[in-house]
Amino acid sequence: MHLEYRHDSDYFFFSQLLMRHIESYIQKHPDAVNAIFDLRDIYEVFREDFAATTTNLESILNIADSYKVETLNGDQALIKSYKIDVKNNSLLLDFNSDALNNLKSGHPLIEPDSSVHE
What we know:
By secondary structure, the protein is of the alpha+beta class.
């Protein structure tokens, strides 16, 4: 796994950690069309940064859902939708099927440009 820290913001760093975790999950579960992660697992992915797992999670997910994969219909976001389920302490992710299939077939994730991201 290749992980580059080249973003100024911690939000971009944590979104990259999350996307690498999602890539690993997809490799281990090739039939998955969605994912449910326990927030305790995300806490470990974020190297036990409590703020990233709680207060800042929505901002990190906002960046993570900008990661795209090249498809025949142009670049498409991998994450179609997400929901933080506080009651069940989980993160629910739905994937875009075209982007997911192309990621599974070896296309790389396209990172959002941190210099133009709002």
